[in-house]
Design brief:
The complex is a heterodimer of chains A (120) and B (110). Chain A has no helices and eleven strands. Chain A is mainly beta and 120 residues long. Chain A is globular and about 40 Å long. The model of chain A has no long low-confidence stretch (mean pLDDT 97). In chain B, 0% of the residues lie in helices and 47% in strands. In chain B, the strands form two sheets. In chain B, strands 2, 4, 5, 8, 9 and 10 form a six-stranded mixed β-sheet that branches. Chain B has a four-stranded antiparallel β-sheet with strand order 1-3-7-6, with no helix packed on it. The chains are: A mainly beta (120), B mainly beta (110).
């Protein structure tokens, strides 16, 4: 059974930093791309970032490029999203999601989500 | 860059059929596969249609997907509507460097 468990989110001040991690199990982690998708309260889904199976290629939405960094450790079946220079509009539930292939294709399984609040 | 536009809401009675559209602005809908996700209140999204018209195991055959190249749109049809189908539905496609989600449609079962 595929499981994706995000670390707890938290509260950060504008301009601050926060890191989210996602522990994966139940599949061959190093074979699949991984993604982060967020959902602001009462809003739709916004893809944030992705990383190829090997970790060699990273992808970012324009809204977070230069502020967020995605990485993965295939030896620990873990993907991490480092969020710097946070803004109030980064407030959202962040989901970790397994892709269908080694590159970006579609999102096969999702974690339960972690709430990140950016407020002074 | 492209966008996927969905109607904000649709509603219908139990047992009826609803169809949700997903129109691609900029580019050809057939350029990349379209997927559909269901998100019930308080839950994470789950896939209900992948690669335009494929249904994952465990998803009822009441759910079906299609694309229409002439209108550059994809559609999700739910037949025999049930109360458990009340949820938000999002279409999604991709290009080489990003995933793109539709604006989302709230399905209400009257």
């Amino acid at each position: 059974e595929v499981t994706l468990v995000e670390s707890e989110g938290g509260l950060a001040q504008p301009g601050g930093s926060l890191s989210l991690s996602c522990a994966a199990s139940g599949f061959s982690f190093s074979t699949y791309a991984m993604n982060w998708v967020r959902q602001a309260p009462g809003k739709g889904l916004e893809w944030v970032s992705g990383i190829s199976a090997s970790g060699a290629t990273t992808y970012y939405a324009d809204s977070v490029r230069g502020r967020f960094t995605v990485s993965r450790d295939n030896s620990k079946n873990m993907v991490t999203l480092q969020m710097d220079n946070l803004r109030v509009d980064d407030t959202a539930t962040y989901y970790c999601a397994k892709d269908r292939s080694e590159r970006l294709l579609w999102l096969e399984f999702w974690g339960q989500g972690a709430l990140v609040t950016v407020s002074s | 860059n492209f966008m996927l536009i969905q109607p904000p809401s649709v509603s219908e009675s139990p047992g009826k059929t609803v169809t949700i559209s997903c129109t691609r602005a900029n580019g050809n809908i057939a350029s990349n596969y379209v997927q559909w996700y269901q998100q019930r209140p308080g839950s994470s999204p789950t896939i209900v249609i992948y690669e335009d018209d494929q249904r994952p195991s465990g998803v009822p055959d009441r759910f079906s997907g299609s694309i229409d190249i002439s209108s550059s749109s994809a559609s999700l049809t739910i037949s025999g509507l049930q109360t458990e189908d009340e949820a938000d539905y999002f279409c999604q496609s991709y290009d080489s460097a990003k995933h793109v989600f539709g604006t989302g449609t709230k399905v209400t079962v009257l």
